UniProtKB/TrEMBL annotation:
The keyword Lipid biosynthesis does not apply. Pfam families: DegT_DnrJ_EryC1 (PF01041). Belongs to the DegT/DnrJ/EryC1 family. InterPro entries: DegT/StrS_aminotransferase, PyrdxlP-dep_Trfase, PyrdxlP-dep_Trfase_major, PyrdxlP-dep_Trfase_small. This is Aminotransferase class I/II-fold pyridoxal phosphate-dependent enzyme. One of its GO terms (molecular function) is transaminase activity. It comes from Flavobacterium tagetis. Keywords: Aminotransferase, Pyridoxal phosphate, Transferase.
Amino acid sequence: MKDERIYLSLSQESGFEEEYIQKALKSNWITSGGPNVDEFENELQRYFENENFVVASNSGTSAIHLALILLDVKAGDEVICQSMTFSASANPILYQNACPIFVDSEIDTWNICPENLEIAIKDRIKKGKKPKAIIAVHLYGMPYKVDDVHLIADKYGIPIIEDSAEALGSTYKGKKCGSFGFFGILSFNGNKIITTSSGGALITNSDEIKKKAIFYATQSKDIAVHYQHSEIGYNYRMSNICAGVGLGQIKTLESNINLRQANHLFYKKIFQEVENAKLFENINNVFFSNYWLNAILLETEEIKESLRLTFEKANIESRPLWKPMHLQPIFKECPYYGNKISEELFKKGLCLPSGSNLTNTDKSRIKEVIINFFK
Ligand SMILES: *Cc1c(COP(=O)(O)O)cnc(C)c1O
């Protein structure tokens, strides 16, 4: 009999979700918005020590789109985006008919490279357009170089949209990821550290902006008895049922973070013994990754692919790193600033199973594959 498949990262129920879903059903709040949504937002605001305002949306992607709309990004505007990321970071730029400008990664955090960021900004200004926003990503939960990146953004007066979709629970200098940018973004998709089945959040430090975000997310209804609209509206609000799932899930956020740290230690132990593979880690204690996903760098693309296939034979999922956006057919016309860091990472990097629900049996199977492969 074939062993059960081990996945990269699956959602896992906390057991508390049902109560909130029942409450929504019984009170007939089976719609977008509602008491669970308000409560979920309050819980998230509490998580951010009530220093931020949170808007729950129906996905992380829609939260990024809302951030661009609120920053008044329009057709023909330019928006800088980290090239190495999931396409959801960049697609909303196209929704606004704006132009993505991609920037390479640096080798320490695999995130946006401060030097290339400044080169890109200077060159775009020289070419006649100052970028309207910068989308920086905490990839796999690893904080980007917040101080360096924000210093440059501030120098040129460009707001940062902090894509923290993978980094709920991560910190930089002890401060929570999601709270650094002009906007922060979270995702509660099924594979993230906690889920609402599908959902996201926009984080801002202004109550005024929160109200405006909700206005856009609920079809931009003007104040009137009838339905009246003077701006484009969107159906981007989180559903009350999904928020119920989120309220159940948020109770396990801390324990999920601990489980992911334990997974990382499991890999650390293994890869200490392996010379030809390097585990992706915090470079120092300024950075605290939630280790949403663990990843390794192999010596060559061939070894990476061979390891991936070996995992596959054991029915264990592993996956290459995000393919940089400047290499994607859909974005091939977009300007790119950088060297070959993200391309090299893409060639040699592999993500390993890192779910909060990995069992000891799963870990033994994973370890066996790795040990035998490198023997
Ligand atoms: C998951 C993810 C998103 C999008 O979130 P959804 O909720 O799936 O729309 C955006 N950026 C990154 C880096 C992600 O991993």
